[in-house]
Amino acid sequence: MAAPAQVVAQNPADAGYDISPIAPWPESGEWTGRIDQELLGFRRDMHHQFLLGGVAARAVRIEHAGRAAGYAYISARGHVGPLAIAPDADAKTVVTTALRCALEGGARRVSMLVPGRADVVMQTALALGFRIEVPLVLMAWRPFGNWCNYLPSDPGFM
Asked: Is pLDDT at 158 greater than 60 in this prediction?
């Protein structure tokens, strides 16, 4: 899904969630691993280590009242993902906080992959002016992951 930055910026939302840079690896491994384990059923340590090694333009921890509510990697071109939302966090607020962070980077367009099962995220994105650009289908032999709370960066990272 994608939207022009000026369209998304017309609907600013700030619900008291804070953003801070994700600490370098391995310091951040404990809390990111916990969220990944809860959402996906496995840790993504190698992915975080790779992304925190300079590939992602910006890696942010999204928190509320001092607790991790999620994380997001945001490219300089405005792509958000992967984005993980802690099970006990407000999905809409975590997503809008990540998008606010993407807008701060000055991108002309913002984008993210939104799984169809992520109904709250999908509703939020549509309300902010996002539209589906490229539909993708994930097929798996067995169910895995909480796709309501996890947005991959691209199909290759799934």
From this structure: no
Q: Which residues contact 102 (CB under 8 A, 6 or more apart)?
A: 74, 78, 79, 80, 110
| Burial (Cβ within 10 Å: 0-12, 13-18, ≥19) of residue 35 | buried
In order of start, what are the domains of the chain with their CATH numbers? Answer: 2-157 (3.40.630.30)
Bridge partners (DSSP) of residue 4 are 109
Peptide bond into 135 cis (omega under 30): no
User: Which tokens go with 53?
Assistant: 């090694």
> Can you spell out the DSSP letters for 12-75?
----S-EEEEPPPTTTTHHHHHHHHHHHHSS--HHHHHHIIIIISSEEEEEEETTEEEEEEEE-
For residue range 23-53, what is the model confidence (pLDDT) as tens digits?
Answer: 988 899 999 999 999 999 999 999 999 889 8
pLDDT tens, position by position, 77-112: 999 999 999 999 999 999 999 999 999 989 999 999
41 Ramachandran zone, left/alpha/beta (phi>0; psi -120 to 50): left
As given in the structure block, the two tokens for residue 4 are: 């022009």
CA angle 49, 36, 134 (to 5 degrees): 85
